[in-house]
Amino acid sequence: MLPSGADIDHVGATAVPGCLSKGDLDIAVRVEPHGFDAADEVLSQRFERNSASLRTPDFAAFENHGLHPAVGIQLMVRGSALDVFVRFRDRLRTDAKLLRRYNALKLRCEGMPMADYRILKSDFIAAALLQHPQRDRDATCSD
């Protein structure tokens, strides 16, 4: 039902062995710019929009807390500014020290308002990806 060429990847903490998690399942759906609106329409018919998440012309988030486990879907245009989920997952899978630091951040933020946690988490992810710049954007199009 998604546009041709869409990549669907398991991302988030449950996709990384040893990563602390709430237990929800995060999915990244990556599409070409011309497929974004169609993918957004398909996902919006099947999932609730995540109103707590950012929405831009090349990023949208959806959720379903009624499933077990709960599911979060991040739709993005491949190569856009928010196309970081797969890269970050891969960094955590291959860098034990980064994973330990990420888990420590999660523990420090326990009980913190979600908006504050998201800012700290976003800063952490941005810094982690800057330490290991992507050599070839197309190399992460799929697992």
Helix/strand layout:
Blueprint lengths: L6 E5 L13 E7 L4 H11 L1 E2 L9 E6 L6 E7 L7 H10 L1 H13 L5 H18 L12
Parallel strand pairs: 2-5
Antiparallel strand pairs: 1-2, 3-4, 4-5
Can you put this structure into words, describing what you see?
The protein is α+β, with helices and mostly antiparallel strands and 143 residues long. 36% of the residues lie in helices and 19% in strands. It contains four helices and five strands. It has a five-stranded mixed beta sheet with strand order 1-2-5-4-3, sandwiched between helices. A hairpin with a 6-residue loop joins strand 4 and strand 5. Helix 2 crosses helix 3 and helix 3 runs antiparallel to helix 4. It is globular and about 40 Å long. The C terminus is likely disordered.
